[in-house]
Every structure is written in structure tokens, then in C-alpha cells.
Amino acid sequence: MTPNVHDSMLLGVDTPEWADLYDEEASQQAQPRLDPTGEIIGPYKVLRSLGQGGMGEVFLAERADKQFEQRVAIKLVRRGLLSKQVQSRLRVERQILASLEHPNIARLLDGGSTRDGIPYIVMEYVDGQPIDTYCDERGLTIRQRLELFRSVCAAVHSAHQNLIVHRDLKPSNILVTVAGVPKLLDFGIAKMLDTRQLTQTVALTEADFRMLTPDHASPEQLSGDLITTASDTYVLGVLLYELLTGCKPFAVKGRSFGELERIICEEPPLPPHQVFVPGSDASKQSLSEIAAARSTTTAKLSRELKGDLSSIILMALRKEPERRYSSVRQFAEDIERYLQELPVNARQDAWTYRALKFVRRHAVVVALVSVLATTLVGATLIASAQRLRVERERAAVLAFSEFLSDTFKTADPGQARGKALTAIEILDSGAKQIRSKLAGQKELQAPILNTLGQIYLRLGAYESAEPLLEDAWHILHDELRIETRLVADVALNLGDLNISKNDLDSAWRFLNLSIEIGKRTDGPKGIAVSRAECGKGLIYMQREQLSLAEAQFRKCIGMYNALGDVAVEESAIPINYLARLLSRRSDYEGAEVLQRRWLDANRKLAPDTPIVIDTEQNFATVLQAKGKLQEALALYRTVVTATRKVWPESERLATVLTNQGWALQELTQYQAAEQNFQEALALYDKLKLPDSERAHLLGRIASLELDRGRTDQAERLYREALALIAPQTGMPRYRSALLVGLSKTLVKRQQPREAQAYIEQALPLLEQLHKNDYRYGVAQSILGRALWLQHSRTEGTALLREGYNKYIAQRGQNVPEARLLRSWLAETGAQTAGTR
Predict the structure, then answer these.
(1) Sorting pLDDT into bands at 50, 70 and 90, what band is 829?
(2) Which of 14, 168, 208, 232 is catalytic?
(3) Active site includes 168?
(4) Which of 525, 492, 485 is nearest to 510 (CA)?
(5) Domain 7-124 class?
(6) CB burial class (10 A; 0-12, 13-18, 19+) of residue 194?
(7) Residue 476, Cβ density class (10 Å: 0-12 exposed, 13-18 middle, ≥19 buried)
(8) pLDDT on residue 223
(9) pLDDT at 386
């Protein structure tokens, strides 16, 4: 295995082939290496070397003053290279790092000079692997590599926003942690853009020129031209080419500098997909190994790279800076468009290209309607053979064909006029036409109404689903008075709809009707009945009747197990519900075991199978509740990617974005968390989701504002959210969480009396819901803090201690909220369980 090193933090490291060309002066000046292992530098003790280069060396060190445990990476200039130029370079690097704050950039922690006058920089220690090694050893797919690369782009874009160009974005300068988080290192030859020049360019100095890595350098770096942010865009293109193909875009090994400059500045790169076609320079065996490291074959890899991906990379690698992407952000956005099956900016905007993208992007809707067409036509033919003449039968089929044709005409680029239509817009078009096109043909109309309503329901568009499902029920149940599996399905969909609306009485009625009809048409142990029974368990849980809910879910699990392979995917539904219930009872271990067991047993299912997405989403929330934040975040990222593909612009996407944002918030990645929350909020507004769901999201945003120290915005948002959930609405979980958040905000604003009033409203709800849960511990701590601030010191301290101990028993001591509670307790002079 490749060692986990910080060699990429050094000046000129990782360029052995070019050492004679670029480190000649450094080599002449360098003195014999002196090993500082065991020495104390500032408050740190040097443990061992992590790597060295022509001008510097990086060491692993640990905190030596016993204040707290911490490992760092210390960068030292080599003895004998203490010229004013070298010292100036280190000061510039330190200033650059001090101006950067991003979760994907290694942080500057300290700096100074040793007793011998040697300058040093103290950096965050990143225990990881170079990004190419990390990807290959784990067999990451092309999609997974692109997701990882987008995080790198975010870090580079952040540097550009701070007017800094990195200029050395090679794989060894990007380490990926075990949790899958990339960290950008080594700003040793980075430059601050000269803000006095409108062009925002910097000149490449002679010293910089010696330090660059030629096969990861832009044409303008090699030719000595002025450098802009477009240079980093080019180098990122080289990096992406290498991550996806396993090869560099140019064959430069063994070339003279003149040849190298001519190749990179003049010759076009080989399109990425052509690396894997017959006749390429690489051997068949090596290409097979490259493809295997991407969990695919050479033929499939060539097809995947051909088209959009090749166009994206080649646009980034254009020789002329002005013809590349205008920013790294635009580069990343084109990759995101590719991942979402949207047209990319790097391709010509032909209508045939946009149409193909549309079909791929909405494969789920197209497939559902296609299945509906096949099933419905077949059912119509069977029913008509019994009751209708051939002429009416033919008319019904023609009418349905015309309906489908008119619906999908809206997707034609000529009619859409270049607009990228969403799944909702296609469904809206069909819903508008169904009553006029199929008027008088109720037996044909009802199944389509049900299917369209079900799709709307799955997309979270409840207002659009409701009239369609109600019309289908009215036709089948009230007018035609028939009992079929279809009627049971419509009743089940209406039950699910009313659960989403929190109209639990109506939901219960429809689920019972679905069970009654399902028993007569599908049998007492059929799938139709099993689905409805699960819905009743969910109603018990929403009514906080947890014992009844648990019994119902376990009954459903048994019913699905009895059905065998025909229900293997759906068997996860009651398992997920039961895991949620166990989490609510603070039995996170039980919830984790349930979901791990199901996922391990069903690895053969595709990762974008809807039930796999749902299970992984629920599992991630369990991991987060247990304080396993990095593992939870990695799973959330997988779920978000899959959800964008299967349910774009849906309530599900809004939910997973909200949960991922919460994990990012707890990892103090506030900017990324805010982006997730704002995207989710836009979806809530567009889909007109229930007030209770919007209130929950507003509470999460308020919590983020509170963590950022913006207490006035936090208080405003908490009050806005509480106004959406009246006490009598039967939503105690959401309301109690908002009351806790508001009271915490008021405590931070030194308003303990008002905070006490709100937390005392929350405690009875929490005692009912979460008596043994960490959330109750938070509430106890807030009340304790409010009392302590009002000089009830003994009672306040006791509550703070009890609440803190309850909290860390489940979530550990390292999440931000634990640190806040610990600071409150420490202020009282009491000793915590975590520090005894």
C-alpha cells in the first residue's frame, strides 16, 4: 500500500524526473540533512519525517505541552537555504494559507522560527492517500471519481475567490482521508493575484519555474506567460484525465525540455475515450488493469468516456486560456450536469443531443408510463374481449395511444424550444389532457389517473396527486362499484397521501379499505395487504403509539418474509420503519443491526434501486445519531447522487439534502451545509410541501445560524418555524425540537428567563418522546444553564451535569453540541463524566 505521507506539502517534492532541470540551484546550495526528530519546535515534538524535497521537509509532530492531544505536520526550510528569497517564499505561503478556510483545504495552525532561526509552518495533519492511489485501491467507479473531483474543484474555486492560484495541482498534492474527504495541500508555489491589475494575472518567476511539475503544468506556465485562474482550470483537466483514464494526456517521459514545451503548448491531447480503443499506445493488459481499477471493462470504460466526458476534459485542456471554462466553478457545474444527465456546456447544443439527454434524465417517468401503456393496453384487450365489440376495443387503444403521444410531444425539442423539461412538467401535461382525451372511457381513464397520481406522490407533489387519486377512487369505487387489485392500490395511495398530509384519520380509513379489498382480490397474505399493514404501523408511530407500531412492523416483516423472493425489495419497508422506531427509542444499536443486515443481504441490488436508496438514507441518520459523522456523510453523498438520478425535484431529494446538510453542519462545514439547506428550501417552496416539513427545515437552518454565532437570525427563524406548527396539530417531535432550539438561542443571547419558559414547554413533550435520548439531555442542559444564569447555581449545575452525561453516552464528546454543553458545565466549576 502507498504510504500516507505529506510529501505534497513540500516545495518541489514528487518531481524526481525533473530534479536536474528545476532544483539545480537548490541542490548546489543544500547542506547535509539534519534530523530534528525528537526536538521541540514551539509547543510540538517532532516524531518523524513525512517527506522531503529540494527546498524543504515535512515532519509529523505532536503537541508536547499536554494541553490537549493533537498531531500536526510541520514544514521546515532545509538548512543552508535560508536566503531572503526562500524565507520570503515561506512567509508568502504562510500568508496564503492564513487567508484560506475551506473543508477541503488543509488548515494553517501556527508558524514561526526555531531557536536556530529556521522558519517553519504548522499545518493540519492529513492522514490520507494521494487521490489517484485512493481511487485505484478502492476501485472507485467513474461516477464516484467525478463526485470526489467536484470536492477538489470546490476547494480550488474557494482559493480563486480569495485571489489565489495554486499552480501545482498534481495527485500527490491532494490527499483523501479514510472517510473519503479530499484535502488540498502545498501552496508552496501558489501566488496571490495582483488585485491592482484588472486582468488578475501574475508573472511566473524564475524560482517558480524551477519548482513547477511539468507534466502537470499549463502551456502558459511552460512558456513563461502570465498566469491566471485559467491555469488551474487546465491543470485540473490534466488531473481529471488521469483519474478517469489512468494515463496522462501527453507522453512526456524522457523528453527534453524543448520537446516537452512543444508537446504541451502545441499538440492536442488524445481524447480520453481513445486511450482504450484498439491501437492505442498502452498494452492490452495494462488497459484491462486500469479498467478493473474503475470496476468496469475497457469496452465499457471507452463508451462511458466517449461523448460528454471527453468534451468536458478537452474543453478544460484547451491551449488558449480564454477558450477554457471561464472558472473552475463552471467546470464543476458541467460535471454536475453530466451526472444529472443534463446537456453539458462543452457539447454543441443540437436538438438531438438535448432530446437524448431528456430521455435518459427522465428514465423513471418514461419507464413508468411505458409499463402503464403495455399493461393497460393488455388489460383493455382482455376486458374488451369479454364485454366490448372489436370496434370499441380498437377505439380505446387508439385513444390511449393518442393520449401518450400528446403527452410526450411536450418533450419534443421543437415544441419545448430548447427548454429542459422536468418530470413534473411532463406529468402536468398528461394530467391536463387525460379528462378530455379519454372522456367517456372511465375504465381506461381510472388506471391512468391512479398511475399519474402515484408518480406525483412519489415525487412529493401532493397537491397534484390528490385530485387524480380522488377521481380514480370515485370512478372505480363510487361509479363502477368494482373490486380489483387496482381499487386496493388506489386506496393504498390515498392512505399514503393522507399520511403525508398528516390527516391520519382519513389515512386509516383508506388503508383499512385497501386491506379489505386486497384480502378479497389478492389473498390475506398478498403484497397489497402487506403494504397497507405497513402504512397502519406508520400511523401508530406518528401518533406516538410506539408499542403498537413496533408490533405492526414486526408483523409486516413476517408477512414479507413469507412472500419470499417476490417481495425481497419491499421487505426493506417495514425494516426501515422499525429501525426509525428503534432510533426514536434511542436503540441505535438495534437500528444499525437491522439495516446493516438488510443491506449486506441485498448487495446484488443496484445502488440506485429506490428501496436501497431509502434504506441507506435511514441508515445514515442512525450513524449520525451515534456520532459516526464521517461515515454518515459518506453514505449521505451516495444517497444524494442516487436520489438526484431517480427522484429529481422531489420531496425525497429535499429530505436527503436536509439530512446531509445537518451532517455537514456537525462537521463544521458550514458553507456546504448552507448550500444543502438552501437547495432543499427551494424544493419545499416549488413543491408546496406541508408546513410541518418546512418548519423542520427552517429549524435546521436556524440551528446553523446559531452555530455561526448569528443569534438574531436564529431566533427569527425558530419563531417563524414555530408559527407553522400550532400546539394542537399533533406534531410533538417537530414542535419540541423547535422549542429546544429557540430556548438554546435565548440562553446564548443572555435571556435566561424567557429561555426557561420555552424549555419548560418542551420538556413534557420530550419526556413523552425521548426520555432516555440525547435530545432530552440537551433540554436538561439548557434548563440547567438558564437556571444557573439566574443564580440557581446548585440546581442548574446538577441539571447541566445530568444532561451532558446523557448526551455523550449516545453521541460521544466530539460533536459540536457536546463541546457547547461541556463549556457550560465547565463554567460552573463542575467536573464532567468525560474528563474525570
Answers:
(1) confident
(2) 168
(3) yes
(4) 492
(5) alpha beta
(6) middle
(7) buried
(8) 78
(9) 46
Non-local CB neighbours of 398 within 8 Å, separated by 6+ positions: none
**Which residues neighbour 224 within 8 Å (Cβ) at sequence distance 6 or greater?**
204, 209
Cell 511552460 belongs to residue: 222
Element (H, E) at 432: helix 423-437
In the numeric block, the cell 409486516 is attached to 556
At residue 115, what are phi and psi to the nearest 5 degrees?
A: -60, -25
Q: How far is it between the farthest Cα atoms of the chain?
A: 102
Give the Cα separation of 549 and 349 in Å (integer): 53
Where are the chain's structural domains?
7-124, 129-345, 568-689
CATH architecture type of domain 568-689: Alpha Horseshoe (1.25)
Nearest to 692 by CA among 499, 506, 540, 465: 499
The percentage of the chain sitting over the pLDDT mark of 90, rounded to a whole number, equals 27
As a whole number of angstroms, the distance between CA 512 and CA 800 comes to: 47
Helix (H) or strand (E) holding 680: helix 670-687
Query: Looking at residue 525, what is its pLDDT?
Result: 76
Q: 129-345 — its CATH code?
A: 1.10.510.10
| Cell numbers given for 183 | 484535502
pTM: 0.48
Res 87: pLDDT: 59
Identify the three-state secondary structure at position 227. strand
pLDDT of 253-265, one tens digit each? 666 767 777 888 8
The C-alpha atoms of residue 89 and residue 832 are separated, in whole angstroms, by: 46
Orientation angle between helical segments 610-625 and 588-601, nearest 10 degrees: 150
**Cell numbers representing residue 640 in the block:** 444524494
pLDDT in tens, 181-236: 899 887 655 555 544 333 344 444 444 444 567 777 888 888 777 788 888 899 99
**CA neighbor of 12 nearest in space, from 167, 117, 135:** 167
Which residue(s) pair with 192 in the sheet?
A: 164
Residue type, 330: Q
